Model the fold of this input.
Amino acid sequence: MTETRRVAIVTGAARGIGATTARRLAADGFAVALLDLDEAAVKETAESIVADGGTALSAVADVSDAAQVAAVVARVASELGAPTVLVNNAGITRDNLLFKLSEQDWDLVIAVHLRGAFLMTREVQKHMVEAKYGRIVNLSSTSALGNRGQANYAAAKAGIQGFTKTIAIELGRYGITANSIAPGFIATEMTKATAARLGQDWEQYQIDRAKSIPVARVGVPEDIAHTVSFLVSEGAGYVSGQIIYVAGGPKA
Ligand code: NAP
Done:
């Protein structure tokens, strides 16, 4: 695949679902650009991909900052080639019940997830339209269906679904698909932080959560990376505007 090697961008790729997805896409044959806020961690992840024989570049960029997004996408295009795969994965939580939720925590969560996906997609679609080919995957969540203490996050993740369906309609004629993955509980630093905030032991928390999941286990980042791998494959060109719940069962 060397001559036709496609370039993929994964945001929030320093760790968790983003890092595992970047590793998987590199193994699938993509040249991968890993973006994150955490310079040391994202560099380390990219270096481990290169050590395993993959092609990877790491860059620091805040996806909610238009200037940084423009600069980093231009850098990826010049160093790796035009990006035709984009995985909008960067995310944060700032959980609180509505009556305690600050404007700052509302704005921050909306900015990273929604504005971030918008800015990244607007920038990268130029390359996709020119190439008449593209695959966009946006990370939503089962929280989009409603989750206590997550009004900001749920609103952002529901917004991602509407955004995905709309860009699928607008960009389809250029050979571009856009889909969203809505994970259920996935064991990462994000869910570990939730357990800590609730004062619960991490191992016990996962055991308890698994009890309500039909496949009787919690999810791992590989579960999401596998779904991304399918959605960005050449053969998935007729799958667009979909929300795929990857949650070990039909409900969150
Ligand atoms: P994670 O371990 O916290 O990783 C998220 C990554 O995104 C971090 O490396 C973080 O960097 C980076 N990031 C945060 N803000 C950013 C910004 N403005 N610009 C660039 N990068 C930024 O989370 P995860 O569990 O892997 O989650 C990945 C995605 O899946 C998120 O969109 C999340 O909402 C979604 N999701 C996760 C679950 C789950 O159960 N884990 C379930 C449903 C959906 P810093 O550490 O430097 O901030």
About this structure: Residues 187-218 form one domain. The beta strands are 7-11, 31-36, 55-60, 83-88, 134-139, 176-183, 243-246. The chain is about 45% helix and 15% strand. Residues 103-131 form the longest helix (29 residues).
